[in-house]
Amino acid sequence: MFNILVTYEHEMTDIYLVRHGQASFGKANYDKLSELGAQQAIWLGDYFHHRDIHFDSVFMGDMVRHRETNEGIAKGLSAGGKSLPEATRDSSLNEFNFQAVAAAYLNLFPEDRVPEGSSPAEFYRLLKKAMLAWSQDKLPHELLDETWAQFEGRVSNMLTHLQNMDAKRVLVVSSGGAIAMMLKHILGYDSATVINMNLQIRNASFSQCFANKRGVHLNNFNSVPHLDVIDRLHAITYS
Predict the structure, then answer these.
(1) 60, 66 in Cβ contact below 8 A?
(2) Nearest to residue 169, comparing CAs of 52, 43, 2?
(3) How many Cα neighbours within 13 Å face the side chain of 160?
């Protein structure tokens, strides 16, 4: 039995699904890391160095915040003399266009508009309602970049690609929505849970999975050991 377990583990690909660091919420250009977000990514790379975690393959979305997060992780690793392989960019790992989803929802329900200067919590309540309507295919397609089904399809295809890789350990830098959708296919939960999971995923967190051609198994979710220390608790963020 021991030999069977060793063989099984050897065949598994260890996948780290990393959400980007804190972006520039409330700024004209959200798709850029804040100063704190850049630091979160460096701390994550430093954590990987001290845990002696090596990656032999890297994937990321083609958004600025994905690239900057990957660069931060590489910087943290390089301080310990380690490096990352060159990342493969894939738009399948991009976040959905939450601004378009919110705008399409408000086109139907203008009374739900959030006044300028409202708190982030008010915006997230609006986004949650908009995403639920999007998942139920209630929003006008002409106002969207993609339907919920198309979003789910591209993310599912990417997960299948990762599942069938021969790599030993893979780093995947993406966004909360895409990661939550991957977890839907791993854990089998419904669309409403995708939305709830999306809003729970912390910046620069990782969810670790083991995968082979037989399936993908979640080992841990939303981990931030590099931030969960007394002088970095302020750096645990969600937006």
Answers:
(1) yes
(2) 52
(3) 6
Can you read off the two tokens belonging to residue 113? 């508009």
Longest dimension (CA), the chain: 63
Read off the amino acid at residue 44: L
pTM, two decimals, is 0.92
Q: What crossing angle do the helices spanning 191-198 and 120-135 adopt, rounded to 10°? A: 160
Q: What is the pLDDT of residues 109-119, one digit of tens each?
A: 999 999 888 88
Q: Dihedral sign, CA of 153, 154, 159, 163?
A: positive
Provide the residue type at 25 as one letter: F
Provide the token pair at 13.
């690909």
Instruction: Judge whether 11 and 25 are in contact, CB under 8 Å.
Output: no
CA–CA separation, 59 and 70 (whole Å): 9
Cα–Cα distance measured from residue 187 to residue 205, given in angstroms and rounded to the nearest whole number = 18
| Separation of alpha carbons 236 and 40, rounded Å | 9
| pLDDT per position as a tens digit, 58-69 | 999 999 999 999
